[in-house]
Amino acid sequence: MRYISTRGTAPVLSFEEAMLTGLARDGGLYVPETIPTLSKDQIAAMAGQSYEEVAFTVMRPFIGDTFTDEEFRELIAKAYGSFGHVARAPMVQLAPNHFLLELFHGPTLAFKDFAMQLIGQMFQKALGRKGERVTIVGATSGDTGSAAIEAFRGLDNVDVFILYPHGRVSEVQRRQMTTPTELNVHALAVDGDFDDCQARLKDMFNDFEFRDGVKLAGVNSINWGRVLAQVVYYFSSAVSLGAPDREVSFTVPTGNFGDIFAGYIARQMGLPIADLVVATNQNDILDRCLKGQGYHKGGVHASISPSMDIQVSSNFERALFDAYGRDGAAIKQLMDELGQGGFDVSQGALQALQEIYHSGRASEEETSATIADTLKTSAELLCPHSAIGVKVANEQRDPAIPMITLATAHPAKFPDAVEAATGVRPGLPPRMADLFDRDERLTRVDNDLDALKTLIKGKLNA
Ligand SMILES: Cc1ncc(COP(=O)(O)O)c(C=O)c1O
Ligand SMILES: N[C@@H](CCOP(=O)(O)O)C(=O)O
Fold first, then answer.
1. Distance between CA 277 and CA 358 in Å, rounded?
2. Residue 399 CA, ligand 2 centroid: distance in Å
3. Reported pTM
4. Which residue intervals define the domain Tryptophan synthase beta chain-like PALP in the entry (predicted)?
5. CB under 6 Å to ligand 1: residues?
6. Which ligand 2 atom lies nearest to the CA of residue 164?
7. pLDDT at 144 over 90
8. Nearest Cα residue to atom 13 of ligand 1
9. Less CB within 10 Å around the terminal CB: N or C of the chain?
10. Rounded-to-integer distance, Cα 363 and Cα 321, Å
11. What are the Cα distances from residue 276, in Å, to 134, 191, 376, 420?
């Protein structure tokens, strides 16, 4: 299996190389050269299997000879062993033919744990045998950072720096990043929004002297391994509702487009998915674009679903790459235009996108109302991101086709928004009960590439 860049001019890499490289050297994102498919029988055989067995079947064709089967099974087992639910990704029913896929039973209570726990294991194995050390820099609107710090804290071969927007993540998210005591992990509070953090991260990857000097690696969904691990729960949930003999649809609360893109990959692999619905908050650039209004940046507005406060949606580049017939030069041109403020999508590419993705948005009021309604009608306490999914799914779903809405975080990560909507303050699980008593360690830093590079180099040399 070989990996190519969405901008067409970076070296073609193996899975291991793509995983450890992060952003392609031409500024693009790595994608598999071809998408392997699973037969109907292979998908049907997943019924009744453990999450770990499904994970092995789904991911194995993508990893080439990076790990032996035995090694890969062991890494998967270690990754999901710490999850708080035996099913790993259980489902509950909200209404006839509407299901909620709970992706928040991992160690940091968000869907990011599914990929990050595995990436942590894969990095450790791959770097350990090469005898190499890398510097991971990540950008977060709250959940990627906490999941990455949890997955990599204390590991031998990595130093981790997480850039988060100062004052724009929930207190639980911030404390998950700032309270671990292991000295190889660092939380950096940037004076800016998430788009600024992600832009500075990509600047670092595009600064080859810095990149090569610190051996930069990435664990955002820039990294193909992140997307790959998220493909698995599309299979496990669809099969439990009757796939491959029955079609299902998915609604996905969306920001950086990694999670919904994983759904698209599942569909390309042969999973019968009728609709893939993108659900955004008031930062609705993706909804507007998919409705034919072009991709034009506005400001990022802080919301009660802070993890989705994103305008420059990194993985949309992967979706555009396929919609433009895998024309790397066309994608480079669009991304250059995005740097100047935005671009219009060609008619053919828009049609290709609309054949795959539907979309909707939820305002702040609609998000709160959905949290309250869902508690009343289904006794389910939603986080604001999941509520956006449920609101959009309710509007768009075909009652004849099972709809699976992804619940991307535990409500206790966003207690203020949930309490304001319902009067109920969700509590953290007992293992995190002392989160608010722990000391915090963070560094404030300007939204400035040189300041960040100096800070990171200084900490590495300390
Ligand atoms: C809780 C939560 N929901 C949804 C999203 C959106 O996921 P994606 O960025 O993969 O679109 C994120 C962050 O990315 C998140 O943290
Ligand atoms: N919502 C994310 C934003 C980063 O997304 P990623 O999937 O590219 O890591 C977060 O919580 O940080």
1. 5
2. 31
3. 0.98
4. 99-331
5. 110, 143, 221, 253-259, 307-308, 385, 408-409
6. 12
7. yes
8. 307
9. C
10. 30
11. 36, 35, 27, 30
Helix ranges, 36-182 (H): 40-44, 51-59, 69-80, 112-130, 143-152, 171-178
Q: Rounded CA gap, 281 and 361, in Å?
A: 5
Catalytically active residues are 112
CA distance 158 to 147: 15
Question: Per-residue pLDDT for 462 more than 90?
Answer: no
Pairing of strands 158-165, 403-407: unpaired
DSSP E strand boundaries for 281-328:
295-296
Model ipTM value = 0.99
Domain covering 88-106+227-422, topology = Rossmann fold (3.40.50)
Measured distance CA(156)–CA(284) in Å, rounded: 40
Are 265 and 273 contacting, i.e. CB atoms less than 8 angstroms apart?
no
How far is the centre of ligand 1, averaged over its atoms, from the C-alpha of 152 (Å)?
20
Residue 141 near ligand 2, beta carbon < 6 Å: yes
In which band, very low, low, confident or very high, does the pLDDT at 360 lie, cut at 50, 70 and 90?
Answer: very high
SS3 assignment, position 251:
strand
Identify the H or E element spanning 195: helix 194-206
Encoded tokens for 383? 């986080």
Give the start-to-end residue ranges of the domains of the chain: 88-106+227-422
Q: Structure tokens of 294?
A: 């072009």
Q: Which two tokens stand for residue 14?
A: 């193996």
223 pocket-lining for ligand 2 (C-beta < 6 Å): no
Encoded tokens for 301: 């507005």
Structure tokens at 453: 């590079």
Taking the C-alpha atoms of residue 109 and residue 410, their distance in angstroms, rounded to an integer, is 5
Alpha-carbon distances, residue 214 vs 134, 139, 210, 433 (angstroms): 7, 17, 6, 36
Q: Which pairs count as long-range contacts for 320-323, CB under 8 Å and 24+ apart, including other chains? A: 320/6, 320/345, 320/349, 320/353, 321/6, 321/29, 321/31, 322/352, 323/349, 323/350, 323/352, 323/353
